[in-house]
Every structure is written in C-alpha cells, then in structure tokens.
Amino acid sequence: MNSKDKYEILVVGLGHAGCEAALVASRRGHKTAAFSINLDNIAMMPCNPSIGGPGKSHLVYELSAYGGEMGRNIDNCFIHARMLNESRGPAVYSLRMQADKKAYQYRMRKVLEGQENLDLIEAEVAELMIKNDVIYGIRCADGREFNAPCVILATGTFLGSRIIIGKTSYIGGPHNELSATKLSDSLRNAGLQLDRFQTATPPRVRRESLDYSKFSELPCDDNVGFSIKYKGTRHCNIPSYLAYTNEDTIKIVQDNLQNSPIVIGNITDSGPRYCPSIDRKVIKFPKNLRQQIFIEPEGENSEEIYLQGLTTSMPADIQEKIIRTVSGFERAEIMRYGYAIEYDYLPPGQLKITMENRNIKGLYSAGQINGTSGYEEAAVQGFVAGLNATLFLENKEPFIPARFESYIGVLVEDLVTRTIVEPYRMMTSRAEFRLSLRQDNADKRCIDDGYKYGLIDKEIYSRVKNKYYAIDKELGVLAEFKINPNKENNKILDQIGSVPIKKTYFAKDILNRKEIKYPDLKKFGYELNSDIPQEWLDIILTEIKYSGYLCRQQKQIERLRKLEDYKIPEGFDFSKIKALSNEAKDNLHRECPNTIGEAARVCGVNINDISIILNYITGK
Amino acid sequence: MFTSDTIVSFITSCNGPVSGIRVSGDKSLEVLKKIFVPEYKKKDIKFIARKVYLGDFVSENGFIDQGTAVFFKGPASYTGEDCFEIFFHGTPLISRLIVNSIILNGVRVADAGEFTRRSFLNSKIDLLQAEAISEIYQTRNEKALSLVYNNLKGTFSKEINEIRDTLVGVISGIEAYLDFPEDEVEAGNTKTISLEVKSIQKIIRDILKNRESCDYIRNGYRIALFGMVNSGKSSILNQLLKEDRAIITNIPGTTRDIIEGEISIKGILYRFFDMAGMRLTSDTIEKIGIKKALKMAKTSDLILFVTDISLEDQELNLKLEKKLKKYKHLTVKNKCDLKKSVENENSSTELLISAKTGVGFDELVEKIYSLTVGDLKMDDEIFLINERQKSHLLQTIESLDLSLETIKNGYTLDCVSVDLYDALNYLKEIIGEISTEDILDRVFSTFCIGK
C-alpha cells in the first residue's frame, strides 16, 4: 500500500478532541487518517462519565450548531440528565448529562468508522517529520511513516504520562493504557516548549455494594438534548444519588495526609483548582466536614459507580478506609482505585488562534495537550483545529470565533492570550457577555457558520432559520400590540390576579409580569400564534425579560467590534512601552498586529496591555 | 508615526540664576555623553547613576557653559526610563544653545506632562498619584498640600483598593454560586449581597461627602465685603491682610470696582472681594450698585456686611441687611471706637470691630472660620478628589444602585453581576488598573468547590 501520499490531514489521538478533528476534516472532503494507541478506547471518558455543566454545556450546544458530533453522541446514550441552575438565571442554565460510558464510545466509533475519507489506524505515533519549520508527516513507533501537510496533535493526557498512587509512581496512561513516551522528545527536538500538569480521578465502586436507602436520589430532567436533531428522543434510565462525607471521613483523610502525593511532593503542584482532591479540600477547608459525594453509574453494562467528590490518589488501603466511613458505603467494594496522572502539555502561548503552532507550519494541537481540562473543552478545540486545517489546505480565510460570539471564541482567545497556570476549564464567569451567549440561542449564533462550512445539512439549517424567523416575528407583534387602560382590560387583569394598568401597555411589557402567561394575551384580543412551541416561547420571554441587560451588552459588544478594527500605526514600536510585560512586548514585536483586535489575541497580551497600547496610540 | 522618543523639557524656568533640563528615554546616556564633558575629562566616562558631575556643556561649535549633570538609570528614575538632569546658568541664550544641542542629537521636546505620563505608563505611579503630581502645581495653601501628599503617597489608592477588594469578594461569591451549581455555595443569598453592596456604597458616599471639604481645602472660600460707601470695607480688608502675614496677593480685581485679597486661616485659603460701596442718591440706595453687589454675593461663601456703627441713622443699613437675608452673612459693625456706648453685645450674626484700632479682629477671623468650615471634616483622613475621580465614584454608586434594583425586581444573579462588574470597572478606572483573574482567584481560595 502506498500510504505515503494518501492523506491530507493526520490526527494523532482519538479522544474527544481527536474525534471532532478527524470528523470535521473528513466531512469537509479531505483524506484523513486518525491514530490511536488503542482503537478499543476511542472517545473514552477516563474521569467523570458526563458531558455538560455551566460553561461546558454552552460549548457543546455551540459545537452542535457548528456541526460537531459530541452533542449528537451524548444525546443518544445518556442515562441521566439534569438542567442545572434553572433558578439562577438564563445565562447560566446548563444541561449536564451522565453518559453510558461504553455506549458513548461505541456510537462514536461507529460514526468514525462509517465516515467517508477517514481511516482509523492503531499505532503509537513517535515522531513528527518536520523540514524547514514545515510539517510533512509522522513516524510511528513501529517505523511506519505517513505523509500529510497537516498534523493535528490530540494526545490528551497520554503524552509522557505517569500514574501516581501514594508513594508509588509508574509510567502509564489513563486507566492503565500505554503512555506515549517517545512523542515528547520529538516535540522538544522540534523546538516546542513542554510543561507538566496533573489531574486525578476518584475510585470506582461496585454498584451492589452500596446501601441506597442511605442516599437521596437526584432528580432528572426529560425532553432535553444538546443537538438539534436528537433533542428529546431519549429518556433517563438509571438514577444517580447523593451522599455526604462526615467527621470520620475527614479525620481519616487528615490522619493520612502524609501519604498524599501533594504532601509527599512526588507530583507537580499544577493541578485544577476546580477539581480538588479530597486531600486538597481537607487541607484547605478542614472545617468542612459534610461534603457532597455524587454517586454516578458508569452505564447499563457496567457495575462500576463513579464517586464524584472523592478524588484521591492516596494508597489503596487508605482509599478503602476513607470510603467506608460514608453512610451507605460501609460494605463498599472498590473496583478501580483512584489515581493521579501527570502529563506533558504544550503551553498554549505557542499557538495561533487557529490552533496552529506559531513556529511549525501545518502542525495543529487540540485538547488537553494545550493545557485545558474537560471533554467539552477538548472537543471544541478539535473542531476548531480540524476546520482550520481544512481551510488552510483550501487556501481560505481561517475560522476565528470572537469572544463576544461564542464560548468557543472565549476559549480559543483565552488559550492564546492568557498565561495558563492550571488546566483551563470553561466557566460562565469567563464570558464577559454571558447574558447574550446563552445555551438557548447557541443555534442562532453558530448555525450560519456551520452551514457555510457544509457541516450542517439544509434541513436542520432551515429548521433553525425558520425558528428564529418566527420568534422575531412574534417579538415584533408583541412589541406593537397595545393594551389600553380601560375598564374591560383592567377587569381581565384583576381576574388573572395582576394589578390594573394606568397607561397603555404593549403586549411584551405585560408579558413581563410573572403572573401573566402567553395564552392570557388572548383575552385582550391578541391573536395567539399556535405554531409556537413552549421552547420558543421561553426564548421569547427571555428576550423580553432581559432586554434591558441584553441591550447594554449589545452596546458593549458594538464598542468591542469597533476597537477590533482600530488601526495600529505602521511600524509602531511596542518594545518602547515599558509597562508591557517582556513577553507581551516580544510577542507583539514578532506578530506586528495591524489592529487592536489582532493585538488582543497575541499571546501574553491581556486586556490591561491593550488599554496601555490604546493609551499610547491615542495619546490619552 | 509614533515612537517612544527620547524627550527633553525644562524643569525650572529657563531664565533664572540656574536653569534645569530633564531628558528621558533610551538615548539619554548617549546624548548626555555628547553634550556634557565632565571635569577631569576622561574619554568614555561611565556616568554612575545618581551621582552629580561638574563639567562643560558643549555643542558642535564648542563650549557653551559650565554646570552639573546627574544620570538616572531606569527604572530607578522619575519616568522609569533612563533619564538625566542638567543645571546651568539660566540665561535665555545658554538655555537655547543647550536645548538646541540636545535636540540635534535626536531628542524631541516633551509634551506638557509627558514625564509624568511616562511614569504612569511605566507603572512607577498609578493614576491617582499621577493626578496628585499635577495637583501640586495648583495648590496654594498648606492644608491642601498635605492632602495632595496623601494622594501622592498612595493613601487614596489604598482606600480604593480596599473597596475594590470587597466588591471582588461579592462578585466571586456570585460566580462560585453560578458556576458550581452542584456545590453547596451559600453566596447566592440576595439579602446578603444587598447588604454588602450597600455597605460598599456607604464607604464611597463617605469619601464623596468629604469631597466638599476637599473643594474648600483646595480652592478656599470666597468672602464678599458688602456695605454702604465709607463704612470701612477697605480698611477692614487691609487690616485682615495685615493681620495675616501670609499675604499672597493684593491686586485690583478684574472689574475696576472689586479689590481682591487672600489670607490663610488655619491653613485654609480665604479670598476677599471688596466691592465698591453703595451710594445714596436722592434718598434711595443706588439700585444698579446693589444688583451688582448681590450678584457677586451670590457666588460667595460668606458675606461680611459692614456697617458704620458711628452713624446716628441706621435705617439704610437695616434696609440693606434685609436684602441679604437669603445669603449666609455676618454683620460687622465697624468703627466701634467712635461710638461711646455700645448697646448690643456680639451675637452669632453680629460683631463689633474697629478697623482703625484692630479691636475685634481676632474674633472676626475666628468667626469667619467657624461660619465657613463649620462641621466640615478638615483632618488628614480625607482625600483630595478631582472631577474625574468623583465622576467614577458616582458611576460606581450608580451601578451598585442598579444592581440593588435588579435584585429588588427579582432578576437572577447573572443579571445582577452585570451591574457589579460595571461598578468594579469604574473603581478600577479610578486607579487606572485593570486585572481579570482576580475574581477566579478569589472563587477558589474562598469557596470549597469542585469535585
């Protein structure tokens, strides 16, 4: 077989980033090969088997509207779903789905295998082939070589990975997979900078060994979904539960801290603050005795239960002691012990916003290798990298989502401009314009690009277009329909239990009253639109209720857009601005941005630096 | 095209016994070596930073003058860049020759305030401190000067930073609540948030309350002398100005009939306006004169209504005093030395004095001070707040008001946070600083979250 010149894009790794990268590349008609160290473990969830949550769900909704696969995949194999934050505001509503871990992998594998233009190859990629700072292929550990002008690295936590349990530590990938030991050296030789991060996972226990009478069952939501196509087609079928630690749990952890890797010091300290191990929580908040443990089954064909909240990499016997202090866990049997994993990543300052490497042409990276954390964060980067690789091959303008358009825009911009000190996780607080970037309007924000790049089919596209056409039309009618302050109308209001009006109200303003529902408008002579489903009505109500805030954000966004295009004088000498960090100065000097928008996306340049640069340019 | 040039400017008058020039920028040392040859000239002398050298200033045409030079190595300089300062005989000719010789070496004349601007941009000082520096030049009394130095030393910045930290605490609580719904974060309680927001508002309002004091400390009080002709207003003014040795000016006013004078009472500046006296024309008081004087009085902080107590007929004075009812005034009964029996005792609005003998002037000064300063705080705890800072503080309060309203109207915390972030940004603008990571840092250090 002449494998040498067959491919245009090579994807290294088939986790969540690799799957999306491989799919977008091949779906856009480019011959793609995707490599995995073990093809049985495509789209594996080595930590919590769930998709979504605040910020993360926004990413998945957007990815779905762009034509990514993650949303469709989880919609087809979740076992439990919850709409979180329902009382905390539309900006932070977020769907979280518990996955049937194996079913998720099988379906994704089937999609990949059925995809035209895509070959799946089992191999450990050992070396990048680079000449004059341009990549031209990869070499596998077994000596096979593959040529292509684009290579996307999506190695997850496998790169130079090491497992740590108590004082023990050995070379290995997640769940005792192989570690990709050789590729790191190749990256170093190519002049790339590598650093270490760590993360950890809790023990898994046998389902039958727990006493469920001691736990409370978590509510679940039906008729939900991330994807436009499969939303509401499946129902929750396995419950999740909630348990709590107690004084004994905390005491055992405290008494055994000398066995914790973070105390021993045989692990890097750079771990995710938002996923603290029980060891770290006890060190930092020793008075917090009652901590939550979410009891989450891993799927229909598995007896394993994931214990969210009990992450630890203490020695096995201590893990057992800790767990058995919890009410309902007295007889708990651990099937897999918790562990920490330490791995190489490429500090993302080396990236362009397209996810291409700054120095090596054609080399892209996505996912945990870029210093992020989470399946969702990985998937969207895989999509951005894959799409941009195809656009590069087609000689087209790159795909660069802005931070005021999507969470994906926030993510890629943060990655290339901020110094990452811990694995980067998406949170709604990172999105300055989160009221405008809701999960309910992700389809509106992203579908045009998805369609433009040929990743959304016509039927879905017109469904979304029609939906917003109808919503906008209805909003227009509501904004014009008048309700006069006459006796009749005030009598109706009284019947509904609302206070009378003294001046003319528009229908949209009266809808702003909590007690008044859309169908009530009929009593005032308003012609109800029966074609509008409840979900669309919810969007309409959100738009009306939050219009003041949305308008304010829209104005801020407009200002940003203008700044985006603000010209930086030719030959502007950034090195003279002493207030900039040396890193920002060097990078600005190298990149020579033409506009403030471009400058803002240069690595190491933060919003403070931008205001200083503006100050210099405008002389104010 | 913009470059961060090396810049030059006078730092003293260019026409005095000694004049001084400062140069700042990367080329400083290079330029200094070209225009200045130290005594005991050695080739390639190394200028030790902050050491004073005596030597000759030279141009292409040779010797210009003798003087001294000091080199400052950045960042340990006023601007944070390499700098030097030179001093020479301050004649217009020498000044011109030396500046020309510097400019010929590729240095440009600095814009107004550019040294201080660079100092700010190079993070040597924050915005509040930069503003304090420009304030120094407008300060004309001791009290104001001590407040300016408060700002310069960063006391005000510290206060603003403390407020900012409190607000960051509130926002981080909300963020923890919104981003970690499954953790048991209790920061979502809107009652607590409202209380915290209100306490921040109170601190800012207190700062603003003192702003009235600031205005007076900085600008002083305007005191109008008002009364019939020949009642002794000018004599009183002269006596007042003599009384206080810290006379600054005693110049005719812009209009021919107003005389102005300044004195300092307990470090506070008082500016007196001596208006031409009212005249009697065919038994009525001159109307135009009164109108004019009242107009002046309106813009004064206090009117000294001067009467000639030695006159038998006080009817006209009583008529005039009626006109002053609306305004804060003190009736000063002058010429008490001419009147043998004094009927009234001094009251809270009346005072007997004699401009001739000086009787009653200690009381007068005391009275002027207490009638103007009154309850205003004048201690060192208050800050000098300029218009820009005031407007940002007001915007902060306004945004916080909006957040309270948002809570009151039952909106969710994602909306409340919009207003709180606005408030935070206004606070940051006061010190001219923006940082983005502080919220998340606070979230993780304060709340036990994450699984």
Order of helices and strands of chain B: EEHEEEEHEHHHHHEHEEEEHEHEEHHHH
What gap, in angstroms, lies between the N and C termini of chain B?
Answer: 54 Å
The fraction of residues assigned to DSSP E strands of chain B is: 15-25%
The CATH homologous superfamily of the largest domain in chain A is called FAD/NAD(P)-binding domain
User: Biggest interface, which chains?
Assistant: A-B, 57 and 43 residues
Overall structural class of chain A, as computed from helix and strand content, comes to alpha+beta
Distance between the termini of chain A: 66 Å
How many DSSP helices of chain A?
20
Instruction: Provide the spatial order of strands within the biggest beta sheet of chain A.
Output: 15-16-17-18-14-19
The helix tally of chain B amounts to 14
Mean pLDDT of chain A: 91
Low-confidence stretches of chain B: 243-256
CATH architecture of the largest domain in chain A: 3-Layer(bba) Sandwich
The count of DSSP E runs of length 2 or more, i.e. the number of strands of chain B, is 15
Structure notes:
- The complex is a heterodimer of chains A (620) and B (451).
- In chain A, 35% of the residues lie in helices and 17% in strands.
- Chain A has 20 helices and 23 strands.
- In chain A, a hairpin with a 2-residue loop joins strand 11 and strand 12.
- Chain A is globular, with a radius of gyration of 26 Å.
- Chain B is of the alpha/beta class.
- Chain B folds into three domains: 7-121, Probable tRNA modification gtpase trme, domain 1 (Gyrase A, domain 2, 2-Layer Sandwich); 155-213 and 384-446, Four Helix Bundle (Hemerythrin (Met), subunit A) (Up-down Bundle); 222-372, P-loop containing nucleotide triphosphate hydrolases (Rossmann fold), CATH 3.40.50.300.
- In chain B, the strands form three sheets. A seven-stranded mixed sheet of chain B has the order 3-4-5-6-2-1-7.
- The two termini of chain B are 54 Å apart.
- Mean pLDDT of chain B is 82; it is low at 243-256.
